[in-house]
Design a protein that fits this description.
Serine Threonine Protein Phosphatase 5, Tetratricopeptide repeat
Length: 309
Amino acid sequence: MAIYPPPIAKLGRCRFVAVGAIRAISAPGNVAGLRVPMRLSLLPSPWRVAAIVLTIALAACGGSKNEAYIEKPVDDLYNKAMDALVDENYTAAAKTFDQVESQHPYSVWATKSQLMQVYSLYQGGKYDDAIIAADRFIQLHPGHKDVAYAYYLKAICYYMQIVDVGRDQKLTELALKSLDDIVRRFPDSKYARDAKLKLDFTRDHLAGKEMEIGRYYLKRGEYLAGMNRFKRVIDNFQTTTHVPEALERLVECDLALGLNNEAKANAAVLGHNYPGSRWYGEAYALMTGGSPPATASEGWFSRLVSGVL
């Protein structure tokens, strides 16, 4: 599923040399990639080389099981992570973005890397890890100019895990809450526009779950339990595609319980709002035993309303 790219990607790659980082053999005795303590520079060149060799040897004595820790320049790490992201090696990208923060926590690139790590985890399908990373970014940087994107990625991670209505809908409810957060917190953002579209699908999905449970109760003859589910759809998910069926199912339950006036009222609402739907025809057949006329909204609906009133 296509989503908005990270806003940080527009800034380009990190193309500066960190202070104190040795990028090449810039002077006799300086080994590329190592940070040389300032005091070593005061030593004569042969002694400097010997000190560096001794440092490397001591690092190697840590044992073959543990790799020696070598701090890398921030631009090397960030660019390596971006290369992995472009190559769609999302696991490596997320890991390297994490290294940017751990090795250079006070760098401006550390904050950018936190958000890029969320994006990398999302692209790699590690939604739970991405949600945790997004929450961390939100907690650490609530006023950041790109915090809306962190909320957006978190919501998308929940949205991507929505399952069919036959299974538990806990993640769908979390997706609904997270998408609604974006609309409330950032109403004028492009992320809010996308969230509104996804909210419609999410609500329709939750309504479908209620309908499935209600149909189950109706089939078992547990009419009151079924009615509660159908009413929940009508009250809480009025804009979804399941409302016409919910009204028709209420007519079935009302008739089964002998609540004829309530059945007429629900059928009237159905006929007025959805006169051309399949469920309108079903309700009409239940109430009259025939097929609805072509001018239903002016015919049987009016008669039902007058009967109720």
